[in-house]
């Protein structure tokens, strides 16, 4: 395999974090923990963006940095709406267990 | 690769693993905070100070607190009798492992055209502000509208309505 460059190290860390978040989102029963898994995946993508910005040819253009900042803002909005939905569903079903949320009608 | 990278990466991955594996949901939220802090330090290591501090403010300051609130409001800290993992956990784990295998194979076997060691970029907050107000002003405005609508939407969705709830 040979020498791992700095960029490859960050990309591998991001891939590992993405896989952990994906595994959590696919296997946990609690809806809040599924949202946590999605947040981890978004963070892994942000790490990729920042790493490519740092080791890319034109860091002064700020492209990757801006992508990461906007991605953080969108992720914050997603977390607020997602958790609001979970709380609302909990009021009707008294559960956050995704295996028991099997009907669309409230 | 420096020793600092490996230490912070180990802490980040340990926090992420704990967040996905622990039984108590409150412990998961605390482990998630550790993972977010590790990522923020990685951003600082990559000379992206602004993104690192934005990560600390938004994720550790807001998202982690929001997750803890949601857990406490939904009594999610009680461990269910059937276990914390769904019935199809094996398939989910296999998919995640395959995704990681493909990603790491692609990363390790691709020849990068980028130079291995580029000079440290010096980016001031002034430049970021100028870019946000100049070239990226339209995305900034759209994000502002998105955040406002998400805030209003979250409040409306989570608002307690008397009579409609059981």
Describe the protein.
The complex is a heterodimer of chains A (106) and B (166). Chain A has one domain: Helix Hairpins. Helices cover 74% and strands 0% of the residues of chain A. Chain A is built from three helices and no strands. In chain A, helix 1 (6-27) runs antiparallel to helix 2 (31-55) and helix 2 (31-55) runs antiparallel to helix 3 (63-93). The longest helix of chain A has 31 residues, at 63-93. Chain B is mainly alpha-helical. In chain B, helix 1 (3-21) runs antiparallel to helix 2 and helix 2 (25-45) runs antiparallel to helix 3 (49-73). Chain B has six helices and no strands. Chain B folds into two domains: 1-78, Four Helix Bundle (Hemerythrin (Met), subunit A), CATH 1.20.120; 122-166. In chain B, 70% of the residues lie in helices and 0% in strands. At the A-B interface, helix 1, helix 2 and helix 3 of A face helix 1, helix 2, helix 3, helix 4 and helix 5 of B.
Task: Give the tags.
heterodimer, A: 106 residues, mainly alpha, Helix Hairpins, 3 helices, elongated, B: 166 residues, Four Helix Bundle (Hemerythrin (Met), subunit A), 2 domains
Topology:
The complex is a heterodimer of chains A (106) and B (166).
Chain A: H1 6-27, H2 31-55, H3 63-93
Helix pairs in contact in A: 1-2, 2-3
Chain B: H1 3-21, H2 25-45, H3 49-73, H4 89-109, H5 125-133, H6 137-158
